[in-house]
Model the fold of this input.
Amino acid sequence: MAKIIEPKTIVGLEVGTTKIVAVVGEILPDGVVNVIGVGSCPSKGIDKGSITDLSAVVTSIQRAIEAAESVADCQIMSVTLAITSEHIQSLNESGFVPITEGEVSQDEIDLAMHTARSVKLPEGLSLLHVIPQEYSVDKQQNIKNPLGLQGVRLGAQAHLIGCQQAWLNNLKKAVESCGLTVDQVVFSGLASSYSVLTEDEKDLGVCMIDFGGGTMDIMVYTNGALRFSKVIPYAGNSVTDFVAQSLTTSRNEAESIKMHYGSAINPTELAEQFSKKKVEVAGLGGSSARTFTKAQIVSVTSRCYSDLLTVVEHELANLRHRLAMEGIKQDLIAGIVLTGGGSQMEDIVKCATNIFGSHVRIGYPLNITGLTDYVNKPQYATVIGLLQYSHLNTDESVSYGLGHGSEESVFGVVAKGLKNFFNKVRSEF
Done:
């Protein structure tokens, strides 16, 4: 018999490029997420956050939900949903209002933030998040809470995140076609930051890179506030595709080769050892298998990962310049946090350290208990973050989403191709 579900039980659903994951969690009094159900299914019909086959996506979601229901022994009725794709856009805006009674009231804080969010967005773009950064009262800047302070004019600074309404509607339609209600929609990069970043890191300055299959979500915090968010439409699958092209093999074979023999760096001290290790790669269309060395494989994967992270470094360099011009702290003292499935590539920390020149760590979900053997992995950062975000932003939610129990070749050509790959990525940013 299914157990009675407590009111603080939340369901997170991530519809990703490589997998669809549903997690059921109870929020304990101390804010820790007790994971009681997990379900996942390989993604079908979605690419870089865009639905390409609605029916296939619906089937994949249903399977993930059913698996989570089976583990949690409950019926899932509604979810907090993650969204990402290259259509995500963000900007920083300010709003100002007069202080009418001599000191700042809550109504004036709300009005200033409303003014900041009232910017006209590009056609088709809907506002997803309004995230306060700081406030000002007259000439006093960088105020975290202006309530009760005296002055003449209140300013509010906010980070706005928007998404294409049509893309959001399609994603919600897929979820609702499974008989589910969508309580909240959360940008996946924001959700991941709730899961893997500490408040100290946000205060000191940190960049989180959620390295997924179809996209990289970038989030930058300084002085405790979100300053920058962006989606790069290249990630792990881009590397897989290029490995498949370079080795003339299937995507599934290329993914396996990448994970078993690839690396994010190409260490010269191991060149001789890598050259001796032979790897047999299945051919396409019944063609005979071919043999490559691990050195040849690593030469492909390492250059791809280096180039992808270099794109992020260029974004950070531009951001540092903008923040400096605005007089805002731009140092990332806490360094770089890599999370998502792509962060599991061998030697990616060394690769990122070389590129960013700062401390790098892998981000695992924090403050969780329960089925930790399943979800204490970087690839679950987003879906765990959905639960934490929903708990801390309950004013946005409709309901918590659960009902009662359910039933149950050549490398000369490769070098040229690599150059084209790098140029393609760089040209778009």
About this structure: The longest helix spans residues 294-325. Residues 396-411 have pLDDT under 50 and may be disordered. The two ends are 54 Å apart (CA to CA). Residues 202 and 311 are 22 Å apart (CA to CA).
